Amino acid sequence: MHTSVYPASHTPSGFTLIELLITISVLATLAAVGVPAWQGFVETQRVSAGLRSVQQALLYARSQAVTRGHQVSVCAAAVGTSGCGNKEDWKQGWIIFSGGSYSADAVLRVSEPLEADEVMAGRAKAVFNSRGEARGSNGSWHFCAGSAGQSLILSASGRLRQAAADCS
């Protein structure tokens, strides 16, 4: 009579090769679907963060102009200096100051650079008067990160609104 090496109560445990291959294929499918969606989510959040940051700065400048009863300006920060720069420099941050022309004494706030891939602006400076109006042409800021994009538009009355931006 032949005796078994394994006791009868022992059942084999572990994965078979088929089970392992099925698990790996399911994980690969989930990764193929999930990674692009996650990247799109991250790009959208970077754009939204930049837009909110500029929006808060403009709203702060407008409220300070009304509260103080005189002009308050927001300008793009110049790279490497403490003054105002060109309209293309909004990605580098901005400066909020009291009055219509930059003076280091009148600085109210200075921002950090933005994380958006691209920030295009229609003007280098927004000036709010004591009634909260931003006289001059409408200002616009376009934020892009990958294919995600949004625009922030400032009207002459000082009102801000958001719109979709084409970043293709």
List the helices and strands and how they pair.
Blueprint: H1 17-68, E1 72-76, E2 94-98, E3 107-110, E4 118-121, E5 125-128, E6 139-145, E7 148-154, E8 160-164
Antiparallel strand pairs: 1-2, 1-5, 2-3, 4-6, 6-7, 7-8
Which features does this protein show?
single chain; 168 residues; alpha+beta; minor pseudopilin epsh fold; 4-stranded antiparallel β-sheet; 1 helix
Percent strand equals 15-25%
Distance between the termini: 78 Å
Order of helices and strands: HEEEEEEEE
Per CATH, the superfamily is minor pseudopilin epsh domain
Mean pLDDT: 84
Q: Widest sheet: strand order?
A: 3-2-1-5
In which range does the helix fraction lie? 25-40%
- CATH C-level name: Alpha Beta
Shape: rod-shaped
Structure classification: alpha+beta
Given the structure, what is the number of helices? 1
User: CATH topology, anyone?
Assistant: minor pseudopilin epsh fold
